[in-house]
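BACKBONE GEOMETRY TOKENS
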Amino acid sequence: MKIGVIGGGQLGRMLALAGTPMGMQFIFLDPAADACAAAVGAQICADYNDHEHLRQLADQVDLVTFEFENVPAETVAFLSQYVPVFPCADALRVARDRLNEKTLFQQLQIPVAPFAAIESQVELDRAIQVIGLPAVLKTRTLGYDGKGQKVLRTTADVTDAYAELGSVPSILETFVHFTGEVSLLAVRSRHGEIRAYPLVHNTHEQGILRLSLPSNDHVLQTLAETYVTSVLEHLDYVGVLAFEFFEFNGGLFANEIAPRVHNSGHWTIEGAECSQFENHLRAVTGLPLGSTSKLGESAMINFIGTVPEVEALAAIEDCHFHHYGKSFKNGRKVGHGTIRSQSAERMLQQLTKLKALV
């Protein structure tokens, strides 16, 4: 089977690494000449709105998926005229726009922090009077890894904040004084089967995910699965979806969803019976889903900007490291390392060694 992937970054690369042993072949469409996924599949170098090359991709594959939500929903809608595309364009329209997300959460009675749509500095000034400070101003689309947002703590921060984010449609949210950040990765097949991985505790640095720790029997696991299931079924979603939450007052506030495989699920490559990448491919191709059960105890650390020396990583027992083949750049995710051990004590010991390298 030939799979087309819109986007050629590390998520696409890891999809291909998971699918190749199952006899799948991959073609990536990405405008970057140095797309790192091209090392594990063919690449069509073209813009996401280039209909001629999108049609070329559709003619060569059995189905299409995408590896990040900044792909225009119109691209998915165009492709779906010629080849099955999962997740669907309607799901992408919701998930790539923060206002659409929050509106859906409200509709499904999933708790969210107070928010307001913002399309001018005047609207921002008015919304601050209602929502108060501190608050967070975020662009509705194209934000990731801390980009496209600004925390507003004082009235001085509010001045010209709309222009600072590019004078584009935005959303203002109450700043949530959370006790923790968690994510739930779940997968829904073409036949409606749903499986979820354990809730993951996440630690961010400067808006970028640094550390993920999958939990054991988290007290909020069932609640999180209830919320995610409602979204998956409402959107008739197919594939892996990541749902990020804030832990707040013993419950969960919805933050955002990502309609794709997700950084906080990288631990599943070594730490789960079936990785998020394999399960995404199983879902979109119509295969039965694999087990989401943990294998031992795991932790994942992102390598940001640079990758530690291979010799140092290899010297840490229980460490599995992944180099994405990307050029090094400040703030860029260029690899990750996962510790997987049979006991929590052992895992934490080895994690300390890995932390010392980053």
